[in-house]
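Our consortium's second objective concerns turning raw sequence data into structural hypotheses that experimental partners can test. To show how far this objective has progressed, the report includes one record in full. It was chosen at random from the queue rather than selected for favorable results. The single chain below, 310 residues long, was entered without modification.
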Amino acid sequence: MNKKTLKLTTGAMATAIFGVLLLLNRQTGNLLQDVFMFLYPVPMVAYAALYGWKSGIPVLAAMSLLSFLFGGVMSVFYAVTQAFTGLVFGGCLYCKVDMTKTMFAVMILSAVVSVLNTIVLGLLSGIDMNQEALEMQMMMQTVSQQTGVVMPENMLSVGYLKQMLVMSMALFGALQGFIVYEVSLLLLRRLRFPVQKPKSVYLFLPPRWTGYFGILAFFLCNTIMARPLENALLQDVLLMVGIVGYIYLLCFGYIGILLVLRLRFPRIGIFGFVIAFLGIFIFPLLEMLAGFFYISSSYHVDWVRKQSTA
């Protein structure tokens, strides 16, 4: 078959699979939308991995059109953003980008998309994050009065609750991006696609300046939460940058803690993953600082050098 014809038919098949997922989601009344969120990027990943992100742009446009035809108002933005994530992911596979960098790119993009989804859907439904934070504040105050538990005033402030709401969305998005990364690679390998073999995440050396950028972005985010800006658009943009920096440090904090646990306790096994994962929810600030130390110090660099010379 002619290469151009094969590219065209492969794009049509990927678009058709995407359309079937949209139709199934609509026929089930969006009951399985949380499951389909992990499947929407896969057709785009497969096509972009074969032909590159430039060739995937027309396919993305066709998928976006199908989402308007077969998807509901609330699911259109989900489908389009997940297809875009698949385009970026597949483009990285096509260009032979380091698999660890690809994984972090997908996770960070998914975190940003998760926050944007909430903002856009809030605008469509008329319920923004401020109203959600107020509802959470009222609920927590009611629970505090009924149980007699005195909670700190700063934890009941609208700014703090809004910050926690945004961070929880970003964390969920990063976790979703990791699952999309693993599921897509698993399916592509089963279908015998030319996918690179991943290397150990511990061998990845992020630039040190990114650690300082992440910590400064986080402090900027906290400052904006405490003292909102008059320009709402500028505030949302800076808030998004702060969330990205926070998620970036938190991911490397998880990896850093896991590495230390494995070095200090070689037989810890799966408990190391559990401890590092629970630290994200129990001690998120400490895990974020661990990520800053992991990126900015020479500890990780020295370990990688020892592994490369061993």
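The partners drew two points from this record. The radius of gyration is 21 Å. The mean pLDDT is 79. Both points have been shared with the crystallography group to help prioritize constructs.
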